[in-house]
Amino acid sequence: MAKKAKVGDKLQVHYTGKLDDGSVVETSGGKGYTVFAPFELVLGQECDELPPKVQKALVGMKPGQSTEIKVACEEAFGPRFEEWVFTVNRADLIIEEEVLPEWRYHFHSKKSVGPTDPKPGDRMELSLSDGSCVPAVVTEVTDTAYTFDANHPLAGRDLTYEVTLLSIG
Description:
By secondary structure, the protein is mostly beta strands. The protein contains one helix and eleven strands, in the order βββαββββββββ. Strand 8 and strand 9 form a beta hairpin.
C-alpha cells in the first residue's frame, strides 16, 4: 500500500498557482510548463511558496496524486491596503546603489545618491527612518515625487493551486 503524506514528512511536489483568469503567477514546473525542479517542503512547516491551506490539502495524499485548491486572498497574500501606497518627495529620498540586483532607499539619511533613478515597475527595499525595511514597487515617477506600493503584488487576489505529490521521504 502506498504511503500517505502526513505532517512532518519531507515531500517533493510540483505546483502551479493561477489567478482567476487562468494566468500563471508561479510554478515549480511540470505539466505543460518548463520543468524547473520539484519543490521540496516539510509538510506542516511554514514556507513562502505554498499557503497553509495548500499544505493541509496535501495531508493524506499519495505520490502521483494531484489536487486543485482554491485559496482566498486572506489565506494567501492577504488583502490589499490602499494606505500602503504612498508618495515620497524626491528631495526626501536618498538612493544608495548596491551590488545586489535590488535597490535600497534610505529616507532622511546622509548616504550618497546613486547615478540612476528608479522607474515604474522597479522593485526595491525601502529603509525607513525608524530602521525598518519594507519591500515596495515604484508605481509612478514625476518631476517632484515617487509613488510606491508596499502591498504584495498578489495582495487582494484569490488564487487556485494545482499540486501534484511526487514523493514522500
